[in-house]
Predict the 3D structure of the following.
Amino acid sequence: MLMTRCAKAAMTACLAAFAAMVAFNNLVDYRANLAFVQHVLAMDDIFEGSRHLVRWRTIQSPFLWHALYGLIIAGELATAALLGRGAWALWRARRAPAAQFARAKRWTITGVLAGFVLWFLGFMVIGGEWFLMWQSPTWNGQASAFRFYMTLLAVGIFVNQGDGELEPAP
């Protein structure tokens, strides 16, 4: 049981490191990643026939491109912080009674939720469907977003599993 609890803390820490690295890369390579957001919001790389039907959805404002990109980065940082807090809470409670360890899971579950909202709602629903990102051969982040939120969900399900009490040492 102790190994399972340590695994839950370690996997949560790995998710936190991932979200932090994504945010870091978006800050360090700001212009390249802003181009991604710009093209998705401008819908300039979708099917020609679709452009005429959904032109009213496009966002052409550089201010809004930066603002929405900033919101994405803030979501990544929040996800990293919540998951980091979750990893630390799980690690500190690894030898605690089951009820206390279960309470420590709330940070991880909140971090998983934040990441899921970012990558599923943000990239699959809004980017993928509203801005038709799926039609773009170049500016399509759906496959990456899918990997991200499915990994979050898998770890979230594992962490949320019951642990029971620790077995006494032989």
Observations:
- The chain has a mean pLDDT of 94.
- The two ends are 14 Å apart (CA to CA).
- The longest helix spans residues 98-130.
- Residues 33 and 75 are 15 Å apart (CA to CA).
